[in-house]
Amino acid sequence: MTTVKAYASPSSSEDLIPTTIERRAVGPHDVLIEIKFAGICHSDIHTVRGDWGPQQYPLVPGHEIAGVVTEVAPP
User: Fold this and answer.
1) Where does residue 70 fall: left (phi above 0), alpha (psi -120 to 50 degrees), or beta otherwise?
2) Bridge partners, 34 (sequence order)
3) pTM value?
4) How far are the Cα atoms of 2, 19, 36 from residue 5, in angstroms, in the given order?
5) Cα separations in angstroms, 13 against 56, 58, 67
6) pLDDT tens, position by position, for the chain (75 residues)?
7) What domains sit in the chain, N to C, each tagged with a CATH number?
């Protein structure tokens, strides 16, 4: 596992705060991306606020990313 820095929401009503998370190992059908930039969009805000159903916190939003592929799982 790899430890990386991220921003997480501790609850539906709190601001994002710096945190450290562990990324799981690359599995079959995966690629590992060294994320250089991530955007927070409107759907991330809805997700963090729990507008679309209950969420598990802490929650790290940001599915719009740009980065470099550093590992590809074998076929």
Assistant:
1) alpha
2) 68
3) 0.78
4) 10, 6, 12
5) 13, 12, 30
6) 789 999 999 999 999 999 999 989 999 999 999 999 999 999 999 999 999 999 999 999 998 999 999 999 987
7) 2-72 (3.90.180.10)
